[in-house]
Amino acid sequence: MEKEKKSNDSSNTEPSSFKLLVSFPSGLSPSQVSVEFGDNYDRIPHSDLTLENTISEIWEQRSVQNKSLFNGNKFRYGGHVLRAGGESDDEPHVCLHLGLTDYRTFVGTNLSPLWEKFLVSSEDDFVLCQHTSSPLGNGAVVETIDNKILVLQRSNNVGEFPGYFVFPGGHPEPQEIGITSHQNVKELPDSININVSREMFDSIVREVVEEIGVPASSLSVPAFIGISRRDLNVRPAAFFFIKCNLDSKEVQQFYSSALDGYESTQLYSVSMIELENMASRMPGCHRGGFALYKLMVDTRKIT
């Protein structure tokens, strides 16, 4: 397991630079991933009220420029703890700490031109993100039956990184399990943490189906391989490994009718060497996802 692993980029704000917040090269099953959900993992407003007020100002500006913007709720990444558990004491287990945030606050903190002002540096050189929205994204490294990896090229319709290469992904969605606010959670069953944990895995399958077009029945149960955070605007994303029982030609046929095809212009089925060459044109969090996948592949070779 690795924490705060930096890429080799010289600048911490290069689009492709990243840190690995945690990694599980052997992959974790749903039973090895739990969630503690609560408002104590929500964003803490900044004490600088002038800076804090820029969140609303930036959102209003963006809303005027783009009428299609929608302020939906997202899960906020508030850290994690590693625990022993499962069938043996040696089986790894991670508990993700998740709060609530929304797209408006994401635009006004992480995506703000002033995003670095929302950060706090600690004595041990860790970057503290308590004042940023930091919604937890997700991504899937999908491997076909003929051992190709699926990579999308983003279209010009997207707000971030048009033209860049990415793995299929998006966000786990609070509304999918009935969460609209913390007050609303009090009215839900006591199994809310279990439901949020399940959404971590269900959401990535949905994203692959919507963006690639393959049927869910062709995909294995996702294995959680870690969390990457890009250095540019400290954007975190959980990554999963998924095996697809279709070959790359069959996948290309399904892609032509993908629901979210407008988000990408092309689907590539590539080898590890080809993916290595594409990595410099990936956003940092996705380049970190590639690093997590490489750790998994290296672990396979050893075992």
From TrEMBL:
Residue ranges occupied by any Nudix hydrolase domain in the UniProt entry: 133-298
Record keywords: Hydrolase, Magnesium, Metal-binding
Cofactor(s) demanded: Mg(2+)
Secreted keyword on record: no
PROSITE patterns in UniProt: NUDIX
PANTHER family, A to Z: URIDINE DIPHOSPHATE GLUCOSE PYROPHOSPHATASE (PTHR31835), URIDINE DIPHOSPHATE GLUCOSE PYROPHOSPHATASE NUDT22 (PTHR31835:SF1)
The name this protein goes by in its record: Nudix hydrolase 9
Naturally occurring in which organism (per UniProt): Pisum sativum
Organism placement in taxonomy: Eukaryota, Viridiplantae, Streptophyta, Embryophyta, Tracheophyta
